[in-house]
Amino acid sequence: MSSDLLARDRRVIWHPFTQALTAPEPIAAVSANGAEIVDAEGNVILDMISSWWVNLHGHGHPLIADAIAAQARTLEQVIFATCTHAPAVDLAEGIVALLPDPLARVFYSDNGSTAVEVALKMALQYFRNLGDTRRTRFVAMDGAYHGDTVGAMSLGVSCGIFDTWGEMLFSVDTLPNAPTWEGDDAVEAKEAQALAALDAYLDANRDTVVAAIVEPLVQGAGGMRMCRPAFLKAWVEKLKAAGALIVFDEVMTGFGRLGDLFACVKAGVAPDFVCLSKGITGGFMPMAATVTTDAIYAAFLSKDTAKAFLHGHSYTANPLGCAAGNASLKLLLDPACAKRRAEIEAFHRAALAEVAKLPGVRKPRVAGTVAALNLDPGGAEQGLGAAVGLKLKAFFKGENMLIRPLGNVVYLLPPYCVTDEQLARAWDSIARGIRAVSV
User: Fold this and answer.
1) Domains of the chain (ranges plus CATH)?
2) DSSP character for 178?
3) Beta strand pairing status for 288-293 and 103-109?
4) pLDDT tens digits for 257-294?
């Protein structure tokens, strides 16, 4: 059964982030429930990365599925440039209620990259609508990844993925981060150095920065690099004092991934923009949102159409996606979900403490439901093409584990429905995989 599907796939499909010449066969998924995916041969595969970090509450959750089905029978799509509808308003109200003041205004789009592009365009136009043409610079952190559209790639150029398209990108000023891990004795020195570099940058460019964008507390695709809340807050406050707008890319960190509902809440920071996607619909539908302040929104109000935000997508605020988002929020706000997220974090910490004792394991770290480590046996090369990562990916596939290393970085980011038994299986598989590739 799967052989026929895979043969057809090879003839017509181009998979994302995949070197087709060397990659193993994809999983022929036919169904999924909770933290498990079933392939065409009947194998049950444990999904420990929430299917690219989108699935919050588990595959096929009936509350979300039923909400989408009911909405499809009522209103499946409508042009949002002319219309509104209750699911979109309900979801916007629900999101705003969870974010710090003064975040109050929601602009919908369709994925994380576009949510970031929206924030960039809004930030620049905000200053232009005010008549300020001095501000032309954008700031990002070293190692950032913000998506694959041109603006998002420009912000994430330091992650090393986008070298092929360098001539397409606009200039972004990349400043040092201060990534840390369990037992990092040098963290304070790194933070002081990064903040000093920011001070020097602002001394030279104080009145020219449009916005600074950051993946708060955890840089995802760049290697699950984590920083401390106090450092992030100090970094933001310096940029705010210089008049720059602050954009938090919470595409991955939002909706409870780091324990608190949002990283901005955990860090005690009120940014000017928050970009959301991935978990916004519980992994059921493509959707994104860029949330900003009423003060920024007001700068676009004018009798001059050119001062409006002339940006949009065909499926903006799709009612099915909004219905899924509202159902997912209901599950997220159940006290049982917060309890389970705390339990997952505790399990990660205990299991990682044991795995960290294995040879070649470096930089163990945990933030909420995200756990990561670097594997560096014998000085193996790093980057997405790292041989150790490719070997581990094949090993995990053989174990019926969906765990997808980022080069030499191994991480777990499970759905909140994952059981302790499933977590134990995953950590046991990681330990055995590390031993296997270290031989």
Assistant:
1) 2-60+338-438 (3.90.1150.10), 66-332 (3.40.640.10)
2) -
3) antiparallel
4) 999 999 999 999 999 999 999 999 999 999 999 999 99
